[in-house]
Amino acid sequence: MIRVAPSILSADFTALGADINSISDAGGDWVHFDVMDGVFVPNISIGVPVLESVRKITDLFIDVHLMIVQPQNLAEVFCRKGADLVTVHYEAAEEENVLAAIRTIRACGKKAGISIKPGTGAEAIRSYIPLVDLVLVMTVEPGFGGQGFLYDMLEKISSVREMIDSLHPECFLEVDGGINEETAKLVRNHGADTLVAGSYFFLAPDRKAAVAALKD
Ligand code: DX5
Ligand code: ZN
């Protein structure tokens, strides 16, 4: 089963409620919620107060992607304020702190994910796979919506798929960045099961058709 997770980074923040409702109307599965701190990535986006508001208006599964340093400090508050899943970056802190963040998320009863940037190899996260519910392979440099897909990442997606199949088959494999109907087909063929789409979804003239194209 393929899940589509529209990233509200590309939504209209003056009409966020309507844009979030359009996700379920279009057949989308999750709300992808990008948190940026201006340190881990060269941009700042949205955080806890917005998450709290979004939680109040949707029953959709909220997939929080933390692009912040030292995520162990804020993992719990994102869980308490409405996340269903919180993903932290492998590169965001020392290993013990990344592991602490994952333990905190799971202790809150939420799903935990680990993400790798384009420059990090698949092997780096082998030991995390049994500990997490999702691996997120970035297919652009994190920080901005609307960038071009990095085709070099396809091989990495296949490697992660092999590791998940042997170590933890229930683990989700998500990809994020530059996903459109063409790249969706490629990542699905390389083993991705959860597709984040920001600009492709929110700029689509017909969002229902956009979700169908990503799943097709
Ligand atoms: C990038 C974010 C993405 C972004 C994707 O750092 O993690 O979720 O919104 O946007 P598109 O789909 O436009 O590449
Ligand atoms: Zn993201």
Description:
With 216 residues, this protein is α/β, with parallel strands linked by helices. It has a single domain, classed as TIM Barrel (Alpha-Beta Barrel), CATH 3.20.20.70. It is 35% helix and 20% strand. It is built from eight helices and eight strands; from the N terminus they run βαβαβαβαββαβαβαα. It has an eight-stranded parallel β-sheet with strand order 1-8-7-6-5-4-3-2. Helix 6 (181-189) runs parallel beside helix 8. 46% of the residues are buried. Bound molecules: D-xylitol-5-phosphate and zinc ion (ZN). Zinc ion (ZN) is lined by residues 7, 32, 34, 65, 176, 196.
Q: What's the short version?
A:
35% of the residues lie in helices and 20% in strands. With 216 residues, the protein is α/β, with parallel strands linked by helices.
Features:
globular, 35% helix, 8 strands, 216 residues, 8-stranded parallel β-sheet, TIM Barrel, binds D-xylitol-5-phosphate, 8 helices, binds zinc ion, alpha/beta
Distance between the termini: 11 Å
**Got a strand count?**
8
How much β-strand is present in the residues? Answer: 15-25%
Number of helices: 8
N-to-C order of helices and strands: EHEHEHEHEEHEHEHH
**CATH first level: which class?**
Alpha Beta
Main β-sheet, in a few words? 8 strands, parallel
Ligands bound here?
A: D-xylitol-5-phosphate, zinc ion
**Overall CATH architecture:** Alpha-Beta Barrel
Low-pLDDT stretches are: none
Mean pLDDT value = 98
**Overall body shape:** globular
What's the alpha carbon Rg, rounded to whole Å?
Answer: 16 Å
Strand order of the largest sheet: 1-8-7-6-5-4-3-2
User: How helix-rich are the residues, as a percent range?
Assistant: 25-40%
